[in-house]
Each structure stands twice: as structure tokens, then as C-alpha cells.
Design brief:
By secondary structure, the protein is mainly alpha-helical. Helix content is 76%, strand content 0%. Helix 2 packs parallel to helix 7, helix 3 runs parallel beside helix 8 and helix 4 runs parallel beside helix 7.
């Protein structure tokens, strides 16, 4: 054969459809590896901050100390974010009058706290699942997009062979082999996306399972007080201090809460 074959030769003779398929594969691969690197780094940092916060939470003498840590946390992770919503629900309930002025204030204290914790979990789930749809789409569609490029390339190769009138093996194998490169590219793009999707989905499930368990503890501490804890002795005073601390940071005067329903009993 006088003409060298390979990927460069394939690119030199590719038409608009083949180049469009290759461009789609390049964009999908770039987006996949961007998400792999950024989400992997984010999960690593978040896990480290979460472990530090949980250790500080369970070693804290009271809720006031926890509230100070939450306010000082410049980059909140899911667990401190959840607790922040719980403290906000306490403050919101203490501010409302005898009757709820808006729908968000409606309900008993434990109902308001439950809604606040659920909103926090839903917000964290949305952040954790960012990019998952893109990875799933690439993992499921990239092999077929590559296969389409292969079929298109084989079609043009066979047409060229037919026009030349030479159907020997050395004339067929090269162009067909070049076209099969598209299938390989599709698999090379899809496999990392599929592995990353499964890895991130498992990591997210673990985080959300721990977050739901922590939400149950937070609810008990802030609403029912059924857990034995050193916090129970000064729970009412601590709850008042938490509210005062939240308002002081906002530059407001902090009157004593009129509704102790959310304090730990």
C-alpha cells in the first residue's frame, strides 16, 4: 500500500458528519473529566470538613457552642448546613405572633422544625447530585454516537471502494479499520462517565444516609429532648442563647423567645 492509514488519515478524509461526531465526543469527554476532577475534589474536602464538624458537635458542651461554630464556618458542609436550618427554625418560631402570618410560619413547632430540616436535606441533595445527569447521559449515549460515526465512516469507505473497482482485502481493511476508531472513541468517552456516575452516586447515598440520621438527632435535641445529654440541664437557657446569638450577629436586639416549644426539654 502506498498510502499510510491511521487516525490522521481518517481525520484528513472525514466529512462534516464525522467531524461533528468527533466534536461531540470531545465535548462530552471534556465535561466528563471536568466533573470527575471537580466533584472528586469537592467530595474529598466536604468529607474532611464534615468529620471535623461532627467531632466538634458531639464534643460540644451545649448548643450555644455549636451555634458559634456554625456561624464561624465560612464554607458550610451538609451537617452544619442542616443545623443552621434547625437554629433558623427556632428563631423563626420565636419571632412569630400568636397566629402565623404566612404559610411558612404555619404549624406546630415540631412541624416547622421538620420542614426546615427537610428543606436543608433537599438542598444538599440537589448540590450533591450536580452533574450526575450529564455523566449518566454521556455514559448511556456515547457508545451509540461512536457507533453512528463508525457506520457513517464504513458507508463512505465502501462507496469509495466501489467507485475504485478494487475490492481486495488490502483496500477494504484500512478504511473500515479507520471507521472503527469511532467506536473506540465512543467507548473511551462512555466508560469513565459510567464509572464516575456510579462512584459519585454511591458517595452521595452514603452522605445522605448519614445526613438523615443526623437530622433525627438534631430534631430530638432541638424539639423533643428525648436523648440523654449534658445539654438537657441547661437546655432552655441554651436555646435562648442560640436565638440571641443569631440575632446579635444580624445586629438586632434579642428579646426572650415567647414560645419555648422548640427548646429541648
Amino acid at each position: 500500500m502506498n498510502e499510510s492509514l491511521g487516525f490522521a488519515h481518517f481525520l484528513a478524509h472525514a466529512d462534516g458528519v464525522a467531524l461533528a461526531v468527533l466534536s461531540m465526543m470531545l465535548l462530552a469527554s471534556t465535561g466528563t473529566w471536568y466533573l470527575i476532577l471537580t466533584k472528586g475534589l469537592h467530595l474529598h474536602r466536604m468529607g474532611r470538613r464534615s468529620r471535623a464538624f461532627l467531632a466538634a458537635f458531639w464534643e460540644a458542651p451545649n448548643l450555644e457552642a455549636v451555634a458559634r461554630r456554625v456561624q464561624a464556618d465560612g464554607a458550610p458542609e451538609p451537617f452544619s448546613h442542616l443545623l443552621h436550618h434547625g437554629f433558623s427554625a427556632i428563631d423563626q418560631y420565636s419571632r412569630r405572633g400568636p397566629a402565623a402570618a404566612t404559610l411558612i410560619d404555619a404549624g406546630a413547632p415540631d412541624e416547622m422544625l421538620t420542614r426546615a430540616l427537610k428543606r436543608a436535606i433537599d438542598e444538599d441533595r440537589s448540590r450533591l447530585e450536580f452533574g450526575q445527569t450529564f455523566l449518566a447521559t454521556v455514559a448511556s449515549s456515547a457508545p451509540f454516537v461512536g457507533l453512528f460515526g463508525t457506520v457513517w465512516g464504513i458507508y463512505h469507505a465502501l462507496v469509495a471502494i466501489g467507485l475504485s473497482g478494487q475490492g481486495t482485502l488490502d483496500k477494504v481493511a484500512g478504511p473500515v479499520g479507520e471507521a472503527l476508531i469511532m467506536t473506540g472513541i465512543g467507548l473511551a468517552v462512555a466508560i469513565p462517565a459510567a464509572v464516575a456516575y456510579n462512584a459519585f452516586a454511591r458517595a452521595n447515598r452514603n452522605v445522605l444516609a448519614r445526613l438523615n440520621a443526623f437530622a433525627y438527632d438534631v430534631f430530638n435535641f432541638l424539639a423533643t429532648g428525648v436523648k440523654a445529654s449534658p445539654m438537657r440541664a441547661d437546655a432552655r437557657a441554651t436555646s435562648d442563647k442560640v436565638i440571641a446569638l443569631a440575632r446579635a450577629q444580624a445586629g438586632e436586639e434579642a428579646p426572650p423567645p415567647a414560645h419555648p416549644g422548640l427548646a429541648v426539654r
